Amino acid sequence: MTALIVTILLLIIGGFIAFAIYLQMKEQARLERLRKVALLNNQLRQIRRYIDDLPPQYQPKELRVWLYQRLMSVFDELLTTQPDESLSRRRRNLEEEMINFQSSKQKRRAKPVIDELEIMELKRLFEAVAQFVAFAKNNKQIEPDQAFRYESLMNFYRYKVMADFHAYLARQAFLTQKFDDAIAQYKEAISQLLPVQENPEAQPVITQFQSIIDEIEADLELQKREAELELDEEEDAELDDEWNKFMNQDDFQKKKHF
After folding, report:
1. Which of 43, 128, 142, 256 has the smallest set of CB atoms within 10 Å of its CB?
2. CA-to-CA distance for 171 and 51, rounded, in angstroms?
3. Cα-Cα-Cα-Cα dihedral of 35, 37, 39, 42, to 10°?
């Protein structure tokens, strides 16, 4: 009888322990699911920020499409973890947005960067995108060659954004006919690109800025020559006037003798 009671008690205790373990595992699974949902939602916000905040001139079409694809993949994983109709609707809207972007032939307009604080923020954004690409590469979510291209682009843009800023200042100086200041700003823009001049994206930009400098300098030289010619003509005209006056005075003297 005593052995039976002990056995029953052991079974009851074992049942309580098993139930406690089950509850603990269930709670751990729930917490793990919540952590995963929070992580995925954070990734959604992160990638959406890259799509929305990177100016068009620093976001090639292929990079934007890849970001859309990564965003949809995160939505799919989130829907698997936490099915929700609002999430499904957002995912459908995102897919439509990507398809419309891919099929659009309209060229996106560059957004001028005219503030140094904005430049600092963009540099942080370039670094964040590069880290995100590296993370995707480590998780086999992007081809190595593609990852290398995007990482190289982000590094190039960290320098180009300052070059674009000085080019903007140069254009403003040119429009106000401060040509020497414009040349100086374009030269500064070129100097900003020198650390990445070996990048294939850099040389066309450097060539473009140098071409503008050459054009402005040629125009200034032409204006200088035209001014010199005009001055010479004025001096010749003054000499002609003086000669004519002299000749008129000489005729007058001759007439007096008659």
Report:
1. 256
2. 28
3. -140
